[in-house]
Design goal:
Phosphatase 2c, domain 1, alpha+beta, 3-stranded antiparallel beta sheet, 4-stranded antiparallel beta sheet, 43% helix
């Protein structure tokens, strides 16, 4: 597997893995690396897989025994996970089996008994999500999305938008599985959220018309709205970050307006440039003529 197909080069990258198998009575989680699976319950007893990080004691012990070190919370100061698929350069210590290497390919397996009255939903996601959301925050966010939409794709996209707005710059992938005990759509919650989103949309249009200084990127606009109190008035647990899709659409519209204005100005600018070039050419001809006269014979003006 280390050798790439069709050549002599070797694979140097690696990946984490998180998966779940559902049966009528159990949920089986398999985790390798720092992607994470969580199971949210109505009782607030959240189950979570454990990330494989080099600074965790049992992981650090294996790394050190294999001749490696943990620096700046990374394997040999480089790799941020202690178990993974691939990453073969960390699995080459002679005489050690694969599970005793600096980076182990061995997953953790969890067997969770299902409770139809208590289980709400499970989420499988990479660390780009958990970099900005704790388990409890993610569960609250998903619950709030399920109270306003039955569209799980839309709910998942909103979670990713919130993570992006909160500063995550890593890859983000998420799978959501919803069970019977999950929150249902609440019409009052839908109404309140729509009212708030309409107020945000109105303010964004005002920012376009007024050409507000500093409204140039999503982070700056989010800060402007937060300073104006939209964060406090949000009916959702994700606060102003819920408006991320509106802000992105605002920026797209703003850019289109600016591009249109530039296209309208282009003919006028071209005409001005042509006039300027003609003036330069005429000036050059005048200078050239004067120079030729100066260098030639004396001219009799009388």
């Amino acid at each position: 597997m280390e050798n790439l197909p069709g050549g002599t080069e070797k694979e140097r990258s690696g990946t984490t893995a998180i998966c779940a198998i559902l049966t009528p009575d159990y949920i089986f989680f398999a985790n390798l690396g720092d992607s994470r699976g969580i199971l949210s319950r109505k009782s607030d007893n959240i189950f979570s897989t454990e990330d494989h990080k080099p600074y965790v004691e049992k992981e650090r012990d294996r790394i050190v025994k294999a001749g490696g070190s943990v620096m700046i919370q990374r394997v040999n100061g480089s790799l941020a996970v202690s178990r993974a698929l691939g990453d073969y350069e960390y699995k080459s210590v002679p005489g050690l089996c694969p599970t005793d290497q600096l980076v182990s390919p061995e997953p953790d397996i969890y067997i969770i008994e299902r409770n139809k009255e208590d289980d709400e939903f499970l989420v499988l996601a990479c660390d780009g999500i958990y970099d900005v959301l704790e388990n409890e925050e993610l569960c609250r966010l998903v619950r709030s999305r399920l109270t306003v939409t039955e569209d799980l794709k839309r709910a998942s996209n909103q979670v990713l938008d919130v993570c992006l707005s909160k500063g995550s710059r890593d890859n983000m992938t998420m799978i959501m599985v919803v069970f019977d005990a999950a929150p249902k759509v609440n019409e009052e919650a839908v109404k309140l959220e729509n009212i708030w989103l309409e107020s945000v949309d109105k303010r964004l249009k005002e920012l376009i018309e007024s050409k507000h200084d500093g409204a140039d990127d999503a982070d700056s606009i989010t800060l402007i709205l937060k300073q104006e109190g939209f964060d406090d008035n949000s009916p959702s647990t994700c606060d102003i970050h819920l408006a991320r899709s509106l802000i992105d659409r605002f920026l797209e519209e703003k850019n289109k307006i600016e591009e249109s204005q530039q296209r309208q100005q282009s003919p006028q600018l071209q005409e001005a440039n042509n006039l300027s070039n003609n003036l330069v050419e005429n000036t050059d001809d005048t200078i050239k003529t004067a120079t030729e006269v100066e260098a030639g014979e004396e001219i009799d003006y009388g």
